[in-house]
Design a protein that fits this description.
Shape: extended
Radius of gyration: 26 Å
Helix content: 40-55%
Distance between the termini: 64 Å
Order of helices and strands: HHHHHEEEHHHHHHHH
Number of helices: 13
Largest sheet: 3 strands, antiparallel
Structural class: mainly alpha
Strand content: under 5%
Length: 252
């Protein structure tokens, strides 16, 4: 556990005490004023188009589990879902007639997202073989129980290993459920060039959270470079001095 994680837990506890122990208010405020340690802000990891396609193609569509996993992976990328949103998605949240889903995200904020045709087709195939189970969740295991977030992470790891056989570069990447979310964000950003649409798609509370994707998208920077008229480079020819010429001609 890092220092910032421990400090966040402590601050959360003291915010709980703030309104319950008025006598300790001064002490609580001193604790809440402790700054977090500054850390390096790394670029978000995401998959390139060929890498993503290899991961999406890894599940075997000739098996029930393969059909389920293919639908899960396509939906995770298409909608940019958090793993809890993906595993918590219910049957009633899917509207295949309008090719959309309703997602309940952080802070109980709801959002409706459209589905790519390929994603809707993958979902239809899974719902056709899912069978009647008691669990309302869309994705269930062989026993008809809701698939857990750890279960999805395990399956993703297995499929990433399969995809790495065709694309060895994937062996150098740590592919987690959140990497699929980052990949979706980069796809939306490159397609729309609008950070606000990315924020709405991912269900972020503020644009500040979404700004990390602009630092990792090279196409946005290239577009900016092409739209800029750079200052002129002053023309000129170098004229060496007599002293420099004499020095160069001096025998060593």
């Amino acid at each position: 556990m890092t220092r910032n994680v421990r400090l966040a837990a402590i601050k959360s506890f003291f915010r709980f005490l703030e309104y319950r122990q008025p006598a300790a208010l001064e002490h609580v405020r001193r604790v809440l004023a402790i700054p977090f340690k500054k850390t390096d802000q790394r670029l978000v990891p995401y998959l390139l188009r060929e890498e993503l396609q290899a991961v999406l193609d890894a599940p075997d569509p000739a098996t029930r589990d393969g059909i389920r996993d293919r639908a899960m992976l396509h939906l995770a990328v298409c909608a940019g879902l958090r793993v809890s949103e993906l595993t918590g998605l219910n049957i009633e949240d899917i509207d295949l007639s309008s090719m959309s889903i309703r997602v309940l995200g952080k802070g109980r904020r709801e959002r409706t997202l459209p589905l790519w045709k390929t994603t809707a087709a993958a979902l239809r195939a899974w719902l056709a073989v899912r069978g009647r189970v008691a669990a309302p969740e869309v994705f269930v295991n062989a026993r008809g129980e809701p698939l857990s977030r750890w279960g999805f992470a395990y399956l993703l790891k297995q499929h990433a290993a399969t995809a790495a056989r065709a694309h060895p570069g994937l062996n150098k990447k740590r592919i987690s459920p959140h990497v699929l979310r980052h990949t979706c964000a980069m796809i939306i950003l490159q397609a729309t060039q609008d950070i606000r649409k990315v924020s709405l798609w991912l269900g972020h509370a503020t644009l500040t959270t979404t700004e990390i994707y602009t630092r990792g998208d090279p196409t946005e920077k290239l577009d900016a470079m092409e739209s800029i008229v750079p200052p002129h480079l002053r023309r000129g020819a170098f004229q060496p001095s007599d002293r420099l010429i004499a020095l160069l001609k001096r025998p060593s």
